[in-house]
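[Meeting: bench + compute handoff]

Bench side (C.D.) handed over the final construct sequence. Compute side (W.E.) agreed to return the predicted structure before the next meeting so the bench team could plan truncations. Sequence as handed over:
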Amino acid sequence: MHVYSVTPESASRQREFTQDYLTRLRETGAACERAGWSGILVPHNLHEVDPWLIAGQLGAATDTLVPLVAVQPSSLPPHTAAAMAAAYATLYGRPLHFNLVAGARDDELRRTGDRLGHDERYERMREYGLVLRALLRGEEVDTEGRFYSYRGFRLEPRPEVLSQCKLFVAGSSPASIAVARDVADVVVTHPARYPEWEETFLKPLLAGGYTGELGIRIGIVARSAGEDAWATARERFPETWQGRQETLLKTVSQSSWSRQLAVDAVAEAAEAAKAAESADAAGEKEPDVYWLGAFRSGHASAPFLVGSHQDVGSRLAEYLRAGVGHVLLNGSYEDDHEDINRALLAARRASDS
């Protein structure tokens, strides 16, 4: 199992930071490496520091950690992305991975002049991924596509380690699944509960001919005692009026995964309220390990698994048995790393049994 954390926010509306960003970034990278994790996701959006500068700082601050750099095709042509990977490999002697994202918010894309529709953005991603993969492999690219044209272009210099770079494709729509089949080494989803994830995502993906690796983006809050994990999760992700309104807006998002998580989050809240009203003197029902409260709070973009190490491990093991080999965490506190690793170990053991 390959585990990835995520770089810290450079700025936040919800909290103030006592350390400068470079210090927090380096400490986060070093902590992930100490935890034994494979890499760290470097997001790309209009409100964060440039991901390639961040990747360079991570390379200087760590020895083995692999940045998983988010790349939107609208922001960087594939030959430039390949050249950046070559520069990173030359400086640090290791590969990096690419997380190809189409962009989830139309309003942000319009601000930078990207007017393609949802499915068109994935058409562009397919061309992008095919060109990028060929360049990383050292092939000469000669193609005339709708979005990219090259005439006998080859990446030079090209360190051999670039052959270890992987392309991740994020998404769960039919368009993203089709692209994943053609270009992804790893396809990543924000998973629904396992039975629904298997039925609505995994089976269509495999039926479409996908033969690559699988990843999920999920948060983990685990403790020795489940009630302690739930107390921590609810303290960190309190539900607010603003968070609920943002969740309602996401139910009509053009992003397939964001829309579905929002719909499920609203339904989960309604079910919880109904259960609370009908709870009898015997006590409340144990909360489900799979939890969308963090997403509903507006402070997280993925579902969470919350509970004891064993309970979280048992639920995560369902995905591992289905072939998931990459777990992208929705961020983590360094104080949580030991608990996360205990839950991951429980998941490995359960999936092997």
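W.E. noted at the follow-up: The radius of gyration is 20 Å. C.D. will use this when planning the next construct.
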